[in-house]
Structure to design on (157 residues):
């Protein structure tokens, strides 16, 4: 066990954990941030996607000790009930969610994609979210939602 200093959703957190534990488990079990989902346990599904220094990262594959001194953003750090970020709101407005289990990871992956590429093409969006599996949708509404955010952001700049 070690005292680790983490920056999560803009707040400093000091926690006493094994530095080899997956970041996902620490977020969910130690910090109560259950929007980061646990699903495949092997980095295949993307349900556990968080941003680490702005890049989409599968938190089930990252030992928490590797992200000390980096900014971690979970779905809870993007917005909250009644105060959704523009990407979350676009997913709602475009009816991009069915069961909703994969949505936190997809929204976070979309944020990472848009941070790197503010005006992605449809193919770039497909590639950008390719690490996130949604078993309920055909991805059409998800892609529409991401396009909508990109267009709205470019209109306001």
């Amino acid at each position: 066990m070690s005292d680790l200093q983490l920056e999560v959703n803009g707040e400093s957190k000091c926690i006493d954990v094994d530095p080899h534990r997956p970041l996902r488990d620490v977020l969910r079990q130690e910090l109560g941030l259950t929007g980061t989902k646990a699903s495949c346990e092997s980095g295949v599904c993307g349900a556990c996607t968080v941003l680490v220094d702005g890049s989409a990262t599968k938190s089930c594959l990252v030992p928490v000790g590797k992200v000390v001194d980096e900014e971690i953003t979970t779905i809870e750090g993007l917005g909250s009930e009644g105060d959704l970020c523009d990407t979350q709101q676009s997913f709602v407005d475009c009816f991009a969610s069915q069961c909703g289990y994969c949505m936190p990871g997809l929204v976070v992956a979309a944020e990472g994609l848009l941070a790197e590429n503010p005006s992605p093409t449809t193919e770039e969006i497909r590639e950008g979210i390719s690490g996130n599996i949604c078993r309920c949708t055909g991805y059409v509404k998800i892609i529409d939602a991401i396009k909508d955010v990109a267009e709205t952001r470019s209109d306001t700049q």
User: Anything to note?
Assistant: The helical segments are 23-30, 75-78, 86-93, 103-116, 122-128, 140-155. The chain has two domains: 2-78, 86-155. The chain has a mean pLDDT of 95.
